[in-house]
Write a structure and sequence with these properties.
mainly alpha, 80% helix
């Protein structure tokens, strides 16, 4: 009993706090994409470059509306990670999706950061200095932050179940 109390004191976050933060992160990113899809341009030119000016139909449909919808799905996943974990396949599926989103966001953030820092594309890639700067200091850290949030949420989600299984 004394060991359980010490464990609770070290882990001061509530069971769903990381899931709620991951949910908020995803919804904020979704709202930004919907703003851009509706014609807003603040921040889009430094993240999408020439596509922001041209706005081809495929880019608006897939890159803005589609990514916004995926972000809302991520928000729903974050919310599920904030809830008590159900037993069985449903709980394992939510945890696995949380870890998958974590991995995708971290890989995206690290891979693009490394590609830009190493200038692998050379002069053939049409990325201006301003776009490179903002991608390195804003967008990639944003993806890394999201990956860490979903990883923490998935970890907390799994640990809450482990504790309840040990006490049952």
């Amino acid at each position: 009993m004394l060991l359980d109390m010490r464990g609770d004191q070290r882990d001061r976050t509530t069971p769903g706090s990381w899931g709620r933060v991951a949910c908020a992160w995803a919804v904020a990113f979704a709202l930004l994409h919907f703003y851009w899809a509706l014609g807003g341009d603040w921040g889009l030119s430094v993240s999408a470059g020439p596509l922001a000016e041209e706005r081809p139909t495929w880019f608006v449909a897939v890159g803005l509306w589609g990514v916004g919808a995926l972000c809302l799905a991520g928000g729903a996943l974050g919310w599920l990670l904030a809830l008590p974990r159900p037993r069985g396949l449903a709980g394992r599926a939510v945890a696995a999706l949380g870890w998958c989103v974590c991995a995708v966001l971290l890989v995206r953030g690290v891979a693009v950061e490394l590609l830009l820092l190493s200038d692998t594309g050379g002069q053939g890639v049409d990325i201006g200095p301003e776009q490179r700067f903002w991608t390195l200091v804003l967008w990639n850290p944003w993806f890394l932050t999201g990956g860490l949030l979903f990883g923490l949420a998935a970890r907390k989600f799994a640990r809450a179940t482990d504790r309840s299984n040990r006490t049952a």
